[in-house]
């Protein structure tokens, strides 16, 4: 019996050691160049990605020499001077800031990974494009679009949508047991979700070579149809819908019962008079993580997931134009978010967030619209009255409104209040609300929005139970449905008030 127990202990110890080795696999940055791909080892120091300077010699032809407490790196005939524990380096006499200091550890020099695009790129006079979320470094003038993939399945079909930035043409073709999407690019910065085998899609993966994505089809797949669009000047979208075989379609049609709820058919309707374009703002992103739950759930991930679900509902049911301020994990300033909505001439701006509090017991969704000291009655009057009169061709005059940045939202406070109330009502029907469900606050992201705008906190990540809820597809879908309901009702109000 003791021998059995000892043997079992040895097996468990071996498995533990194996798991430890697997978990300790060091991270690496993939360098993508015209010659191919190669890995550059990374070292995580203080939760930041660092590169050992001696590792740069092989891929970039650098040489390093220590002198007087510092390090001199020669690259492309230029000199980079690095000083330990300093966040500034000198590139051929030009000072270049770094987000983290250079470090000397165990007789080796380390620089933050941002050193590559900020300093080394200048010395080499070569484009070095760091894609932080995917740990990818694109060198030279390669065409490497970012491609984010999402899968939306149902009983009748499954849609695979590719969000592509910048605009990149793609061709869809079929081979035995799979659909091939070939992009006109040198390579792809591809994000593919992990999904279990489904009825129509068994797997999605990059091709072994080239800039292609493979959709391995499932047992119910019979045919596909594809469509492409361009949401804005900087991105394109390709959707591939996988359909069942013709015999399955006929059988499904024969067995289908009359719809129990005909209120919401999934068809494309004509755009409404008062609401044509909606901008959804997934809060935070990139280096701005936002709130973080006890289990590590990040606000920036939750907000993007909910925003994508809401966009799908609006596009498929209302046929309106919907733009996201970010399609992937990137950092965007508050002013750029409202400027994005203004430049796309949005009729509604909705910013989605998840909350956090010191006390873990606080929970519930909340809705905000703008409150600024200057946005009182006088500010609203200025927003309405600030205009200039210019002579018009052919005689007469014309009046041009001047929208001041700090009062852009002031003229929409009443409509924003209505929007916030409708959002609160939609959420209350589906999720738990905070005791103070609708509030005013001076959120910077709302200040410059030149349209009705609201900010939604869909729950508290600091509450352990709510963190679990926020991470589930079911909760995210309930929130998206609630926001869709609110926007539909707001659309109706705008239609009735339109001349």
What's the arrangement of secondary structure elements?
Blueprint: H1 2-23, E1 28-33, E2 36-41, E3 43-45, E4 48-52, H2 57-60, E5 63-67, E6 70-75, E7 78-83, E8 88-91, E9 94-97, E10 103-105, E11 108-112, H3 115-124, E12 128-131, E13 136-139, E14 146-153, E15 158-165, E16 170-175, E17 178-183, E18 189-191, E19 201-206, E20 212-217, E21 221-232, E22 235-244, H4 246-255, E23 277-282, H5 299-318, E24 321-324, H6 334-343, E25 348-355, E26 365-370, H7 377-385, E27 387-391, E28 397-401, H8 413-428, E29 433-441, H9 444-447, E30 453-460, H10 464-470, H11 473-497
Helix pairs in contact: 5-11, 8-11
Account of the 3D structure:
The protein is α+β, with helices and mostly antiparallel strands and 499 residues long. The protein has 3 domains: 112 residues, Copper Amine Oxidase, Chain A, domain 1 (2-Layer Sandwich), CATH 3.30.457.10; 107 residues, Immunoglobulin-like (Sandwich); 221 residues, Zn-dependent exopeptidases (Aminopeptidase). The chain is globular. The N terminus is likely disordered.
């Amino acid at each position: 019996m003791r021998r059995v127990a000892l043997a079992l202990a040895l097996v468990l110890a071996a498995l533990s050691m194996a798991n430890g080795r697997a978990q300790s696999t060091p991270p690496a940055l993939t360098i993508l160049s015209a010659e191919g791909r190669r890995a550059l080892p990374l070292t995580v120091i203080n939760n930041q990605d660092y590169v050992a300077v001696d590792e740069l010699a092989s891929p970039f032809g650098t040489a390093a020499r220590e002198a007087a407490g510092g390090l001199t790196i020669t690259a492309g005939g230029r000199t980079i001077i690095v000083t330990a524990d300093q966040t500034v380096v000198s590139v051929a006499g030009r000072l270049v800031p770094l987000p983290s200091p250079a470090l000397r550890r165990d007789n080796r020099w380390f620089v933050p990974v941002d050193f590559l695009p900020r300093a080394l790129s200048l010395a080499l006079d070569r484009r070095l494009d760091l894609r932080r979320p995917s740990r990818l470094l694109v060198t030279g003038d390669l065409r490497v679009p970012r491609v984010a993939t999402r899968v939306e399945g149902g009983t009748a079909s499954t849609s695979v949508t590719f969000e592509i930035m910048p605009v990149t043409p793609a061709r869809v073709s079929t081979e035995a047991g799979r659909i091939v999407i070939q992009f006109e690019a040198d390579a792809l910065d591809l994000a593919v979700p992990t999904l279990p085998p489904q009825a129509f899609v068994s797997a999605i993966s990059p091709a072994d070579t080239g800039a292609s994505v493979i959709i391995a089809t499932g047992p119910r797949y019979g045919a596909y149809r594809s469509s492409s669009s361009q949401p804005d000047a900087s991105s394109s979208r390709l959707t591939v819908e996988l359909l069942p075989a013709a015999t399955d379609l006929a059988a499904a049609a024969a067995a289908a019962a009359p719809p129990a709820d005909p209120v919401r058919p999934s068809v494309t309707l004509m755009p409404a008079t008062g609401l044509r374009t909606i901008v959804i703002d997934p809060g935070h992103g990139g280096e701005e993580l936002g709130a973080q739950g006890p289990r590590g759930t990040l606000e920036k991930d939750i907000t993007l997931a909910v925003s994508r679900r809401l966009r799908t509902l609006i596009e498929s049911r209302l046929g309106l134009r919907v733009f996201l301020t970010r399609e992937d994990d990137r950092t965007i300033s508050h002013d750029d978010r409202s400027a994005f909505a203004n430049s796309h001439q949005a009729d509604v701006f909705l910013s989605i967030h998840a909350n956090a509090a010191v006390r873990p017991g606080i929970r519930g969704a909340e809705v905000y619209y703008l409150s600024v000291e200057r946005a009182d009655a006088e500010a609203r009057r200025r927003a309405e009255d600030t205009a200039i009169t210019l002579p018009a061709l052919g005689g007469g005059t014309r009046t041009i409104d001047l929208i001041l940045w700090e009062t852009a939202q002031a003229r929409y406070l009443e409509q924003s209040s209505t929007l916030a109330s409708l959002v609160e009502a939609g959420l209350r029907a589906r999720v738990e609300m905070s005791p103070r469900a609708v509030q005013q606050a001076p959120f910077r992201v709302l200040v410059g929005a030149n349209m009705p705008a609201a900010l939604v906190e869909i729950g508290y990540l600091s509450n352990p139970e709510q963190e679990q809820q926020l991470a589930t597809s079911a909760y995210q879908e309930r929130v998206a449905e609630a926001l869709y309901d609110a926007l539909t009702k707001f659309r109706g109000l705008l239609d009735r008030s339109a001349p």
